[in-house]
Design a protein that fits this description.
Helix content: 55-70%
Strand order of the largest sheet: 1-2
Distance between the termini: 64 Å
Length: 468
């Protein structure tokens, strides 16, 4: 509706003036038309419409004041040079005492006047600080959008002001989070990893439990795609920080990576020759990724390649074997065998396999404990008892289901396909569907079955270890 209206108004100046006179009688009722009419009027009849916009600067309605500044920013190319200084003075004064909605609109307009037209960065930074200091959630929303659009045009001092302000993001405002996500994503892609990490780290730490890496969908997708460069940097940074919030988010990020991809660490962030730093990082990896043995192996082996100290290598081997290998022997052995073919890692990998074989031999050398090996009949009796209880609970749940009460349920006992019939216009229609197999499995830790607290204790011990 708006574009045809603008085209219609452009055809005759009188139409523009008449339209303005109509909406000026009741701005509140026509608030959606104010912006388009004023913007078109500023372009077609500047002398008439600019004074009208000036009057709105001090209107009692906060929304009208915000619209007036928005119109100027959207029509910046139409503002005459003689009015630049006057507008700058007005917005500087407004930044001291205006309402949140109006302060938000002063930021992009101020950037246009102070930076794009005059290159007065210092004055814009002062305006920006005043708007942020006196504003609230709406200002932060506009600031996030401004940052996402203009991040590459901002000077370092301006970026620092914006990044510092965005740390106070409200976790309930999803739209603001999405805009910050766009800005962080662009920072990473432009090579400003440190600035992006500082902002993201601070937001995650300040909003523990309310905001996670999953809220930053663009950034998360970009990190997963760029595994060898940015992802390695972020994962290493978060795990080595020791901060529980960042380490948990590292876990969430790594869990989204497909098993077919190997991930690695960015070892430039630690001193590989330092025994304390290497063992600290390896234990954080084991502690926070304990249920993802394949990911732990990829990260540890990427670090092992650069370590020459046998004492450190033996310590990593022992930690990994006692906490991960014993608990997840199936998944772990498959991945380690692949690394055993690598000349640089074969000794470390084969050493782990040998430790596991020795461990199994020691277990088998112990006399069989009858209580730990129930007979076939006992296992069958347990299975039937469990299935019976399961089916009874399922029936009770289905009785409470609305869906089960309004649709017919068919049970296919056996077969490779399903055939059903429906009636359309009195004629039966046959529907054939080929059945396929779908399954999923995951390995559970073994030691909790025997010693329930040992596994959890070891994980927590690694998680709580203090940074050297």
């Amino acid at each position: 509706m708006i574009e045809p209206l603008e085209d219609y108004l452009k055809e005759d100046d009188k139409r523009l003036i008449e339209a303005f006179e109509i909406i000026s009688e009741d701005f509140k009722s026509y608030h959606q038309l104010i912006g388009p009419i004023l913007a078109t009027g500023l372009k077609e009849n500047y002398e008439f419409f600019y004074p009208k916009i000036e009057l709105l600067f001090n209107d009692q309605d906060e929304r009208l004041r915000a619209i007036s500044f928005q119109v100027l920013n959207n029509s910046k190319s139409n503002i005459k040079n003689g009015d630049h200084e006057k507008i700058k003075q007005i917005i500087v004064e407004k930044s001291q005492s205006e309402e949140d909605q109006v302060l938000a609109t002063l930021i992009p307009l101020g950037f246009t006047l102070f930076c794009e037209f005059d290159e007065d960065i210092e004055s814009f930074n002062k305006l920006l600080e005043d708007c942020i200091g006196n504003g609230s959630d709406i200002t932060l929303n506009f600031l996030a959008d401004f940052f996402a659009k203009h991040y590459s045009d901002l000077t370092i001092p301006t970026k620092n002001i914006v990044l510092s302000a965005l740390e106070a993001i409200n976790p309930e405002h999803k739209g603001t989070i999405q805009k910050v996500d766009r800005g962080i994503n662009k920072l990473y892609q432009s090579g400003e990893k440190e600035s992006a990490c500082l902002l993201l780290d601070k937001i995650l730490e300040e909003n523990e439990g309310n905001i996670s890496i999953n809220n930053f969908s663009l950034t998360k997708s970009m990190l997963i795609r760029d595994r060898e460069n940015i992802l390695s940097f972020v994962i290493t940074r978060w795990l080595y920080s020791g901060n529980s919030t960042l380490c948990i988010n590292a876990n969430k990020l790594i869990s989204k990576i497909s098993e077919e991809y190997a991930i690695s660490l960015d070892l430039s962030q630690i001193d590989v020759s330092s025994e304390k730093q290497v063992l600290y990082l390896s234990r954080k990896i084991i502690g926070y990724l304990s249920y993802m043995p394949d990911k732990i192996i990829h990260l540890l082996f990427s670090m092992v390649k650069e370590i020459t100290d046998l004492k450190v290598l033996n310590s990593i081997q022992q930690d990994f074997f006692e906490v991960i290998f014993i608990n997840f022997p199936g998944d772990t052995k498959k991945v380690i065998k692949k690394y055993s073919e690598d000349d640089d890692l074969s000794d470390f990998a084969n050493g782990l396999i040998k430790m596991h074989e020795t461990y199994n031999e020691r277990l088998k050398s112990v006399e069989t404990i009858k209580e730990l090996w129930p007979s076939l009949s006992q296992r069958e009796a347990y299975r039937r008892n469990f299935n019976q209880k399961y089916h009874e609970s399922l029936k009770q749940a289905e009785k409470q289901s609305v869906l089960s009460n309004i649709v017919h349920k068919s049970v296919i006992m056996n077969g490779s396909a399903s055939v059903s019939y429906t009636e359309i216009d009195g004629e039966p229609q046959r529907h054939f569907m080929r059945l396929g197999k779908m399954e999923h499995s995951f390995e559970q830790p073994r030691m909790p079955s025997i010693a329930p607290f040992d596994f959890i204790y070891s994980i927590n011990q690694f998680r709580l270890e203090e940074k050297p």
